[in-house]
Amino acid sequence: MVTAVERSAAGSLHGFPAALTSFVGRAAVVAEVAGQLAQYRLVTVTGPGGAGKTRLAGEVAKQVAGRFADGVWLAELAAVRDPAQVAAAVAAAVGIRELPSVAAADALAEALARRQMLLVLDNCEQVIGAAAELCGRLLLGADDVRVLATSREPLRIAGEARYRLAPLTLPDPDNPADPDGSEAVALFADRARRADASFALDAGTAPVVARLVARLDGMPLAIELAAARVEALGAAQLLDRIDDRFTLLEAGDRLAAVRQRSLAATVEWSYRLLDEQDRRVFRAVSVFPGPFTLEGAEAVAGAGSGAAVLHLVDCSLLVPPRAGPDGRYRYVMLETLRAYGAGLLAEGGEGDAVAAELAGYALRVAEDATARLTADAGEVAAARWLDAEDATMHQVLEWAMEHDAAVAPRLAAALAWWWQVRGRLASQVPRLREAVDRAAAGSDAWCAGHAWLGQASLDSADPAGALRHFTAVRDAIGDRGPSPLLARCLSGRSATLLTTGRIAEAAGDARRSVALARQGDSPLAEAQALAVLGLAACVVGDRTGAVQLAGRAEQIMAGRDGPAARACSHILTTVLIEVDEPAAAQRVCAAGLAGARDAGDLWSLGNLLEKMVVLDLGSDLYEDAAAHLREGLQTALRIGSRARLLDDLDCCGYLCAMTGRYAEAATVWAAVVVLQGRDGFSVPSHPDMPEGWFQRQEPLREARRALGPDRARAAEERGQAMSLATAAEYALMLTAPGPQPPAATPGLEGLSPRERELVTLVAQGRTDAQIASQLYISVRTVSSHLDRIRDKTGCRRRADLTRLALSAGLV
Question: How far is residue 378 from each of residues 11, 385, 503, measured CA to CA in Å?
């Protein structure tokens, strides 16, 4: 039903084509632009090609038409190539047939002076100067005329109000299966149903469409072109092939303007309007995979390119700068434009040169940020700087692996501190190892890379690997003189040797580390070596020596912060716990924890939380212990530290035993023993967890006595069957606040025996492929079964299914 207002508005629109498709989303944007027109006489809507400026202008015109006694008139300028013809084209659009060839803009303003109207000037960019001149004349000579212009850049005249049209709203990237509220998904679904009546946005297609529209930057034209292909390809294949978007998205509306029939034509229209300098800068900055600073742009495009960057923003080829996590302002190029620029770079043979400039810039940033990260001040700002440059660092490192053997190892070594602080070192080990392999043996980058591989091996419960890497660095550096890196490596090697019972050798490495740190004026390296030497003293029962060494280390650390200081705090807390100095241990650990939280240092956070659990248990603070342990487990899972998870699980066994949950204690400890054995790693001699703390035999005997033989055996068999992920989920359940989950879970009641079997296998850590092999069914069948299980139980993630199986006793 058409309302009276709509009929009135439609009757006062002139030159607007009939809308043959629905207008999806952007109701708020229409209202905002209409509001600007009520306040300002000239409003320019800017945005890249394909953003939907023309369609938006039509919707705004319909909404505001009732305000103008002489209606709303559309003048389409896309076909006008001669700036001298702009006034004549507008005159023809508003029904004025004759204008003098001289001062045509003034004559048009005079002719419109008695009208009360809205003039919509669409697609001004290719005649931007003439359009600006005409609007200036109208503002001065026709008081009751208002102008709504659309262009890829603003007119830049007095009296202009600008509205930059953003892409359509996208789904939440953390929940692509729930696209409700996304304008981009709604547009795709509407147009896809027109192309294929059987298309439906359901649980299977919604996540795919969500990713697809995000890859298309939420740009309406690209989305409509993609939706037109849905019948021939399906949503999944569209997403798979979207890297070739300019070939894929070319079959548009045959009646549309040429520039709107394909994605390539739309982008090329904007590119061809640039001068040669702007084109060169556009191509160069397309090498950035994510947000970039003006300094970064000048690094890859050359000094003096800043003005071109600003013009690219005006032309809607770059998104205006926004503050990143480090406070620096960064520009963004939409993925579609970036893909077009990359094609131009490749076509012109410029790609390698620009990529090399980007690599040099990234290396300078990484080394500068890392120097600040490890200094006494500036750590947080430095880490945030690298956070903001993450996409660039990732791309450059991948490129350097193939094209620059000198940059790759240096960049990887420079990023390693940041990777560790953010809990990403374990996940970066393959890339780090590959980069180290490209370095000259014994070079600085080679040594630094092997030092970090040694640390990563310790974190993954691989002392043999750690010893191999630390030893390689020791042998490579030899007797070159004071070396902070060698001092740090010797501390790591000493700690590793302690895990294998080579006490004398461990103490010798720690003493040498102390001497090197003093010679090189590296106080934190000295403190860490002293703390490790204190560990060695603990192992041989020298409490007095351990206390003295710990005291010296704590004195050096006083007032210091940063990732290296917190790593030292972790070892020092261990020594103080072992020598029965809980107050000092609490002081050191609490200070380190506070620093880790402030800095977002996940690696230190996980390490220090485990120490705090030990202190809580020693003081009978069981609720505090559970809270700290739960946070520690979550942190260890997030950073992927196997060694930390095993330590936390061991602590969970003590917590359960001390709180009378004997079956749970027996289950957790049984899991720990089996999981340690799988890697040949023995926690009782691990430097992070001193031997004296792990006398679990007596509490385990007490648990077995309380349970009786049958219940004890059942509890232990349950733990022995657990994977590391399953055991971690079990520990998270045991440390959850509030009442424990019931023994039976209603979510399982509707599952068939086969579906219960699948839930059990998922909880045991099996992948879809492993389940398929074990049950002699296809991976697709496994996936279908799991989709039905998720629908029945509401458990969307594998971790949720694991908890479900654990709470029901299936595992």
Answer: 64, 11, 38
Q: What is the Cα 407 distance to its own chain's centre?
A: 24
Distance CA 204, CA 188 (A): 15
CA distances from 85 to 81, 100, 118, 205, 284 (A): 8, 12, 21, 49, 35
Cα 299 from chain centroid? 24
Q: What φ, ψ does residue 154 adopt, rounded to 5°?
A: -70, 160
Task: Kindly report the number of other CB atoms within 10 A of residue 263's CB atom.
Answer: 26
Burial class (CB in 10 A: 0-12, 13-18, 19+), 741: middle
Write out pLDDT tens, residues 361-387.
999 999 999 999 988 778 999 999 999
First to last CA, the chain: 60
Q: How far is CA 725 from the centre of its chain?
A: 23
pLDDT, tens digit, for every residue of 170-225? Answer: 887 766 556 667 888 888 888 888 777 878 777 777 788 888 888 887 888 777 77
Residue 51's SS3 state is: coil
Among the listed residues 587, 499, 496, 503, the one whose alpha carbon sits nearest the alpha carbon of residue 541: 503
- Contact (Cβ atoms closer than 8 angstroms) between residue 489 and residue 455: no
Kindly provide the residue ranges of all beta strands, DSSP E only, lying in 516-596, ordered along the sequence.
Answer: none
Q: Which residues on adjacent β-strands are paired with residue 490?
A: none
**Number of continuous H segments (helices) and E segments (strands) in the chain:** 40, 8
Using the structure block, give the residue that is written with the tokens 């398929």. Answer: 772
Specify the 3-state DSSP secondary structure of 180. coil
Token pair 């004997």 in the structure block, residue: 662
Closest CA to 787 of 801, 776, 774: 801
- What pTM, to 2 d.p., does this model score? 0.77
Q: Which ranges in 216-275 belong to alpha helices (H)?
A: 220-227, 230-240, 245-248, 263-272
Cβ contact 500:463 at 8 Å: yes
74, two tokens: 């559309």
Query: Six-digit token pair at 585?
Result: 């241990």
**The Cα angle at residue 29 between residues 28 and 33, in degrees rounded to 5:** 120
Strands (E), 561-648: none
Crossing angle of the two packed helices 798-807 and 753-763, in degrees rounded to 10 = 110
659, with CB counted inside 10 A (0-12, 13-18, 19+), is middle
Integer Cα distance of 689 and 611 in angstroms: 9
Partner residues linked to 150 by β-bridges: 45
